[in-house]
Prior knowledge:
2 copies of one chain form a homodimer. By secondary structure, the first copy, chain A, is α+β, with helices and mostly antiparallel strands. In chain A, 42% of the residues lie in helices and 18% in strands. Chain A has a 6-stranded antiparallel beta sheet with strand order 3-8-4-5-6-7. Chain A has a two-stranded antiparallel ribbon with strand order 1-2. The A-B interface holds A 86, 89-92, 96, 99-100, 103-104, 107-109, 111-112, 115-116, 119 and B 86, 89-92, 96, 99-100, 103-104, 107-109, 111-112, 115-116, 119, 178, 180-181.
Amino acid sequence: MELTTAEENYLKAIYHLSEEGKKSVSTNDIAAVIQTKPASVSDMLRKLGEKEVIQYRKYYGLQITELGKRLALQTIRKHRLWEVFLVDKLHFAWDEVHEVAEQLEHIQSTLLIERLDAYLNYPKFDPHGDPIPDEYGDVRSRPRIALNEMNIDQGGQIVAVKDSSAAFLRYLDKVGAYIGARIKVLDKVEFDGSVEILVDQKKTLFMSKDVASNILVLQS
Amino acid sequence: MELTTAEENYLKAIYHLSEEGKKSVSTNDIAAVIQTKPASVSDMLRKLGEKEVIQYRKYYGLQITELGKRLALQTIRKHRLWEVFLVDKLHFAWDEVHEVAEQLEHIQSTLLIERLDAYLNYPKFDPHGDPIPDEYGDVRSRPRIALNEMNIDQGGQIVAVKDSSAAFLRYLDKVGAYIGARIKVLDKVEFDGSVEILVDQKKTLFMSKDVASNILVLQS
DNA sequence: TTTATTTTTTAGTTAACTCTAATTTTATTT
DNA sequence: AAATAAAATTAGAGTTAACTAAAAAATAAA
């Protein structure tokens, strides 16, 4: 089964959307993620349906098939391995990697990915803390909790972010809340859901609920 | 000037064919190299002519322009750098690299290529022994200067070290002065010859003359 | 339950790149 | 020089993937 670059991008978006939200994936949502128009999405859904990577009934909704899931995870695997490469080997900042990885993930060569994986020493997580599926699409994910849902005095380690936009990542870098940082919740403001946290046992900082809800923590 | 992947491939083929000397490049020759039909080549030649990367008069022949040469050499540079990566780092055999490098050469990111070049230690030849053009399309060697010999406010990129002992490299990695890092001389202490430098526009650090004299910088 | 709104899909274009078939231009023979 | 062969180009059409505008279906509101 061969997918075009465009098809891979759609399928990846569909996979991510089906994973995070429980409700069915909407045409508009996909259009927003892919940065395209709903009309183009409808068109592509028909094609993806024909290729049996999704089950699609128009106006009704869609469901990703096992085949689709496997293919999407292969693309995600490639994307995350390249991100590790860019950060670990080429010293990219973790907020500079996405755009390039978006291109690299479409390079077709099983040998390349096998070798890259070995070269990087079989990493289990990418620089944002997201798990890297193995070649069969299996994921070992760690139990994580959004920072704004933690209780006072609870501690942990930042392991991932939900929103990985460059702007957000730059902000985190600036305040020192990078992936791997050890944090502890000092206080929570009930009124607006904002939190005060201690970073790496030295710096305290305030975070709005919006920001905190985008930070995933591995509790300790 | 932005070229599509297809345009890059045509231009690269045209460059190679023109270099091979011989008479002017024929439509049929290009078709043979690109594995396409002469009709498609004619079409593309018109487009490349409009973009002024070749000079084209139909039925007459074509000549690659300076602009075209520069762009072709950029693609060739990327191709050959990736080949070095595949062989040196991922242990591909020299006859397995071409197909993958054909894909990788179209990834668009100046930063990526700069970092890759640095990571591979500025190779001058690819695994087949073909020369790797520099970022300006030249094969000339670049002038380097020891870090301790630079003047205040001068900037550049770390391109090599004289002492490549593991201990020294570990030290450099620790302070963030790896190969490829962009640096700027902030201050020099006349008394002991030590320098203060800015690394990657964010971190400043002091270096003894001994250390600085072992670091080679490509001035910019 | 109608009406209004939102969502989704279809219809019709466009752009890039390819093809086959037909035509035009250049080159080679006799 | 005329006839023939080869090379190059144009014409027309297909594919992929995008778009705008209009229609259809589903959902929400009156």
